[in-house]
Amino acid sequence: MGNFMKHLKKTFIIILLLPLILIFAYIFFEIFGMCVNHIATARQTDKLQNILENKIDDINFIDVYSETGNTSGTGNHVDCLSEISFSTEMQIGEINNIFSEIYDNDVFILNKDDSGNYKLKLCTFAPFWDNIEGH
């Protein structure tokens, strides 16, 4: 009888602790996903900057910005957004050709402002795209 009561007590404790363990596991998974998503955004921005440096000789960076989260405001997903402002004598068509070889036209946008500076915007899904950051 004493051995049965020990097993019953252990089982009862496990049943009580299981929800807490699952909650902590979920929180850990979400935090892990956030960290991975931010690392992915930083790597994407660095890669974009390196491509620009390697392909455009006379590039002058004005601003480099990145953001991880629901950047569009629609839906529950996480984006990796990289924006780089720069100036160059290269024409917009030539720059578009560089990036159309690497990325689909749906994920990057290249604009030229009135002062002649370019703004390249790259937005992709994060590795953990259904993370809490997107909600």
Question: What brief labels describe this structure?
Answer:
about 45% helix
Helix/strand-derived category reads: alpha+beta
Order of helices and strands: HEEHEE
Could you tell me the radius of gyration in angstroms? 24 Å
Question: How would you sum up the major sheet?
Answer: 4 strands, antiparallel
Rounded average pLDDT: 89
Helical stretch tally: 2
Strand order of the largest sheet: 1-2-4-3
In total, the number of strands is 4
- The low-confidence parts are none
Q: Note the quaternary state here.
A: single chain
How much helicity do the residues have? Answer: 40-55%
Describe this protein's structure.
- The chain is 47% helix and 24% strand.
- It has helices at 2-55, 92-100, and strands spanning 60-69, 79-87, 108-112, 118-125.
- A four-stranded antiparallel sheet has the order 1-2-4-3, with helices on one face.
- It is of the alpha+beta class and 135 residues long.
- A hairpin with a 5-residue loop joins strand 3 and strand 4.
- It is rod-shaped, with a radius of gyration of 24 Å.
What does the secondary structure layout of this molecule look like, with pairings?
Elements: H1 2-55, E1 60-69, E2 79-87, H2 92-100, E3 108-112, E4 118-125
In short:
By secondary structure, this protein is α+β, with helices and mostly antiparallel strands.
